[in-house]
From TrEMBL:
Entry GO terms, CC: membrane
Gene Ontology molecular-function annotations: dioxygenase activity
Cross-referenced PANTHER family: ASPARTATE BETA-HYDROXYLASE DOMAIN CONTAINING 2, ASPARTATE BETA-HYDROXYLASE DOMAIN-CONTAINING PROTEIN 2
Pfam families tied to this protein: Asp_Arg_Hydrox
Domain Aspartyl/asparaginy/proline hydroxylase: 200-363
Protein family membership: Belongs to the aspartyl/asparaginyl beta-hydroxylase family.
UniProt source species: Arenicella xantha
Protein name: Aspartyl/asparaginyl beta-hydroxylase
Alphabetically ordered keywords of this record: Dioxygenase, Oxidoreductase
């Protein structure tokens, strides 16, 4: 029989109150025409109600296999796994769904969505928060001198309400409540800062020479990827040449293509207490903000690291705002600030503003606490990396 005929017969069976016949026809349909995610999804739901766990799991698996970028498939498959007491696997699928569609775990108040989807969304939200928050607390319980880190909040997935210290303070990823919070930190007591500022002219010269070479020009990238087009605050600069970056380190990896052009820069930065997730600085880059541009107010990722700006090429009428405090860059000077506070950058001149940016550890953290943070981030990354393998749990269900 054709796809159309099988589908029509299945619809008729359900309409006439013959669900067992309808399910048999859906199975037959998907056996012969296995490329329709909606059909697999429908079979999975009916299998859950009157079929078998193994067949439901298989149908959910096939739905994801056919439409791997459809968040709804992961939401429903995760819910089924949770009903089978596979909570950790369910959480993995919920997390994938959230990556595909940030709204998928927040459907509870969307009345245009089916009640079934809203209930699953609400349960998925609670489950993912519980699983990840418990993982964090269990991990920190095994660490030394990590009480403050155990109390830290993964903001997007925390299972308890979060109360920030200020209306203009809201790290978006990781928050340690007991760390001192102040918009700007002074560099006067930082022994490492002097070495960097003393080399600022040479650092500027290295950048100028590098920009004359095609290799370095090719290394310039829009600081914000196209993904930020959906970010209401920063969408105007998404994938834009109006805010460019040249990376020396990005995500802990040295840019070996151009590192040889910056020996003085890299040597001057060696003594800084760089924020690291392993043994390398997490980020060091030159930031070029074009004339007449501004970076809209936004929040950073976490409060366990501070952002450092070494001012290099600074035209008039350029300033940085953190919280409600404006501070002008001055060539050769270093500014330290906590980007957990609402912050923005403004270039009201007709020239490009250039600063060297890197991150350092919050000075109030102990060495044990730094290690604990690194372990927490590594554990979270390891968990994220293994999510896809959990999809096969759907195939392990038996009748």
């Amino acid at each position: 029989m054709t796809r159309t005929t099988l589908l029509a017969q299945a619809d008729a069976a359900f309409d006439e109150g013959r669900p067992v016949d309808g399910l048999a026809l859906l199975r037959e349909l998907n056996k012969h025409y296995s490329d329709d995610a909606a059909s697999w999804h429908r079979q999975a739901i009916v299998e859950e109600q009157i079929g078998s766990p193994a067949q439901a799991g298989l149908a959910h698996y096939r739905c994801i296999e056919v439409a791997p970028n459809n968040a709804l498939g992961y939401l429903y498959a995760g819910h089924w796994l949770q009903r089978q007491q596979q909570t950790n696997a369910a959480a993995a699928l919920y997390s994938i769904a959230q990556d595909l569609d940030a709204s998928i775990l927040h459907l509870a108040h969307h009345q245009q969505i089916s009640e079934q989807a809203r209930l699953r969304s609400s349960e998925a939200n609670l489950t993912l928060r519980h699983v990840l928050s418990k993982q964090h607390r269990d991990l920190c319980a095994k660490m030394i001198d990590a009480e403050r880190i155990a109390d830290a909040k993964w903001v997007q997935t925390n299972d308890q309400a979060i109360h920030f210290k200020s209306k203009n303070f809201a790290p978006e990823l990781f928050y340690i409540p007991s760390l001192a919070a102040t918009p700007f930190h002074e560099c006067a007591d930082c022994n490492w800062a002097q070495e960097i500022t003393e080399k600022s002219s040479e650092i500027q010269q290295e950048l100028t020479r590098a920009l004359e070479q095609k290799l370095s020009q090719d290394s310039l990238r829009p600081y914000l990827s196209g993904a930020f087009a959906k970010h209401s605050d920063l969408s105007e600069l998404a994938n834009s040449a109006n805010w460019l970056a040249m990376d020396l380190y990005k995500n802990g990896e040295l840019n070996t293509q151009i590192a040889g052009l910056f020996p003085t820069t890299l040597k001057a930065l060696q003594s800084a207490p760089h924020y690291t997730l392993d043994s390398q600085p997490f980020e060091i880059f030159f930031s070029l903000l074009k004339p007449g541009q501004q970076i809209a107010p936004h929040y950073g990722q976490s409060n366990h690291a501070l952002t450092a700006h070494l001012a290099l090429d600074i035209p008039p009428n350029c300033h940085l705002t953190v919280d409600t405090i404006n501070r002008e860059w001055k060539a050769g000077e270093l500014i330290l600030f906590d980007d957990s506070f609402l912050h923005s950058a403004h270039n009201n001149s007709d020239q490009t503003r250039v600063v060297l940016i890197f991150s350092i550890w919050h000075p109030d953290l102990s060495e044990n606490e730094k290690t604990a943070i690194q372990q927490c981030f590594q554990a979270r990354q390891d968990w994220l990396n293994q999510r896809q393998s959990q999809i096969k749990t759907l195939l392990a269900l038996t009748d």
